[in-house]
Design brief:
Length: 302
């Protein structure tokens, strides 16, 4: 039920519904999925293989710097105004034509978020237009958040300024689109025997006699994929800037060469390559951050 309705996402720039309260820090970032590879590292979990060398699949995410062009202030519910950077080039790139100054009473501010945009033109896969978004800003109260946000205004943030290896993050993205699919593939319904109604991949029963209509929960054909999904608790295994250590000889399949900072996330992530990924500090994390111990990084891609 959490995955209803199964319709196409409204935008690839997925909305982040909630961000955790935290100490004074930036709570999110944005990146682009480049591909997958595998690494050998020391298992630091409490599994039976603890302390041993294990092989894990990792997703390579290119994380070019994001630009902070403004601060958005909120009262308990609504936005009460923006504080914009002084850099005219940055504002023009963000699509802000006129700089309207609005008096913001700091005593009414209850929450603060950073107005940033990702810069895909710095990557090599050909996307040109910036992607604007709001990112949470942590602090013990609104005053501390606002003071910290003003220090970041008009600057570019690198991924290594926000996160560090060993931390857990959540990934919000739009999955691969698979078009219109039948109920057997879309919901995993059982195949019927050949003599049932001379059909195999259809639903035998669409519901009870009463209520005398088909419920929306009945498995039927429809759109599959291109849905917004959130992956929880993905571990950052590496953050680096030396792209020669990870780029295959012919580049990542259907992506090309990574040109900016990158990170390894353990496991798979939603979406195809080149898809925008929203990263936030994990909301269900627990335990202290442990520095990952990578032994070998493969340059072979799947």
């Amino acid at each position: 039920m959490a995955h209803r309705p199964r319709k196409r996402a409204g935008s690839q720039n997925a909305n982040v519904q909630w961000q955790p309260e935290e100490e004074k820090r930036v709570l999110g970032f944005a990146g682009y999925k480049a591909g997958m590879t595998h690494v050998t590292h020391v298992d630091q979990t409490e599994s039976p293989s603890k302390g041993q060398e294990i092989v894990s699949a990792v997703t390579v995410v290119e994380v070019p710097p994001i630009a902070v062009y403004g601060i958005r202030c909120y009262d308990r519910i609504n936005s009460i105004g923006d504080i914009l950077a002084e850099d005219e080039k940055m504002l023009k790139k963000a699509g802000i034509k006129t700089k309207k100054k609005k008096e913001i009473k700091e005593e009414k501010v209850r929450d603060v978020r950073l107005l940033v945009y990702a810069q895909p033109e710095k990557t090599g896969f050909g996307k040109k237009h910036i992607e604007k978004m709001e990112i949470g800003c942590g602090g013990k109260d609104a005053k501390e958040k606002l003071e910290y946000a003003k220090l970041l205004l008009g600057k570019e943030l690198k991924f290594s300024d926000v996160f560090k290896p060993g931390e857990f993050i959540d990934i919000i993205a739009v999955t691969k689109g698979k078009g219109w699919q039948g109920p057997a593939k879309r919901f995993g319904t059982a195949l019927q025997r050949r003599k049932a109604t001379n059909k195999r991949r259809h639903v035998g029963c669409l519901g009870a006699f009463k209520p005398p209509y088909v419920m929306y929960t009945a498995p039927q054909a429809g759109q599959m994929g291109y849905h917004k999904r959130t992956e929880l608790n993905k571990e950052i295994l590496r953050i680096g800037d030396n792209v020669d250590e990870i780029n295959p000889s012919s580049g990542f399949n259907r992506y090309g060469f990574v040109k900016n900072d990158y990170m390894f996330v353990r496991g798979s992530l939603p979406g195809p390559v080149k898809r925008l990924l929203k990263l936030r500090l994990a909301v269900r994390r627990s335990g202290a951050v442990k520095e990952p111990q990578l032994i070998y990084v493969s340059k072979e891609t799947g």
